[in-house]
Task: inverse folding
C-alpha cells in the first residue's frame, strides 16, 4: 500500500512559479513509476508529466513542455513538479499517482495509487 500526499499548490499570477511535492508513505516507493495529473471541473483528468522508477523514461504533455520539470528523490520518497511561467490555463487540481509499470502508462486507469490533490490557481 502506498499513500500519497501532495503539497505546494497555491495562487500565483501569470508568469509565476510553483513547486509541487508529493510524499509517499509505504514501502518500495523507488519501484513505482510516478506521474502528475491535473483536472478541472467537467473535464477529464490530464496527464501532465511522468517519470519512471530510475528516471530513464520521462513524459511531458505538449502544453507544459519547456515550462514544467518533473523529478524524484527516491531517498526521500518524494516526487516534485517545478512549474515555471505559469499560465491561467494551468489552473487545476493537481494529483500525483503511482503505477507499478516499468515505463509511463498512457491512461489514468493504469495508476494504482492517487493523492488527494492540491489546487493551483493562476490569475492573468
Result:
Amino acid at each position: 500500500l502506498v499513500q500519497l500526499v501532495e503539497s505546494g499548490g497555491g495562487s500565483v499570477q501569470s508568469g509565476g512559479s510553483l513547486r509541487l511535492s508529493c510524499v509517499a508513505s509505504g514501502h518500495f516507493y523507488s519501484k513505482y513509476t510516478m506521474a502528475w495529473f491535473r483536472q478541472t471541473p467537467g473535464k477529464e483528468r490530464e496527464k501532465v508529466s511522468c517519470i519512471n522508477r530510475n528516471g530513464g523514461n520521462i513524459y511531458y504533455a505538449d502544453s507544459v513542455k519547456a515550462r514544467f520539470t518533473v523529478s524524484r528523490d527516491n531517498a526521500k520518497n518524494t516526487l516534485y513538479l517545478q512549474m515555471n511561467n505559469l499560465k491561467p490555463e494551468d489552473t487545476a487540481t493537481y494529483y500525483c499517482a503511482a503505477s507499478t509499470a516499468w515505463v509511463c502508462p498512457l491512461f489514468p486507469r493504469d495508476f494504482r495509487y492517487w493523492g488527494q490533490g492540491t489546487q493551483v490557481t493562476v490569475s492573468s
